[in-house]
Amino acid sequence: MSSPFGSFTGIEPHEFASGVHLRAVGGEQVLLCRVTYEPGKQVPRHRHEHTEQVMLILEGDVTITVEDETRTLTAGDTVVVNRGLEHELHSAGGCTFIEALAPVPLDHVPDRRRDLVLGPDGGSGHVER
Q: Which residues are bridge partners to 88 per DSSP?
């Protein structure tokens, strides 16, 4: 992406996991994603060794477990998943949320040429996962 301005409008979402779709835009240090779960879909227990994740639920609900604590979040709720913590997500009825991740995990970037605005560091701080 050559301009600092963009839009998720008109961009087909990337299927990150079965029934889980995302659109992303990122810079040198932060990635912002709009994520949608189809009803009944989940992302199994995993961890991001190098990346912190902050989520804001926009609509629907999602059950999130971070380490040993489980909560069902609805519109307006947030969760912070510090790097290295195991977590999993499941949405019985479907949901949409915004998440910010830092440093940028490249496995969440559907198209590196379209979805990243790089500065003088050229993305040197990005991580594979």
A: 65
How, if at all, do strands 31-37 and 41-46 pair? unpaired
The DSSP code for 106 is: G
In whole angstroms, what separates CA 48 from the centre of its chain? 11
Rounded CA-CA distance 28/129 in Å is 15
- The whole-angstrom separation of Cα 62 and Cα 74 is 7
Give backbone dihedrals phi and psi of 113, rounded to 5 degrees, phi first: -75, -35
In whole angstroms, what is the distance from residue 117 CA to residue 25 CA? 8
Spatial distance between the Cα atoms of 56 and 7, rounded to a whole number of angstroms: 19
**Surface-to-core class of residue 92, CB atoms within 10 Å of its CB (0-12 exposed, 13-18 middle, 19+ buried):** middle
Q: What is the rounded CA–CA span in Å between residue 8 and residue 48?
A: 25
CB 103 within 8 A of CB 126: yes
Secondary structure of residue 115 in the 3-state scheme: helix
Q: For 108, phi and psi rounded to 5 degrees?
A: -100, 0
pLDDT in tens, 45-84: 999 999 999 999 999 999 999 999 999 999 999 999 999 9
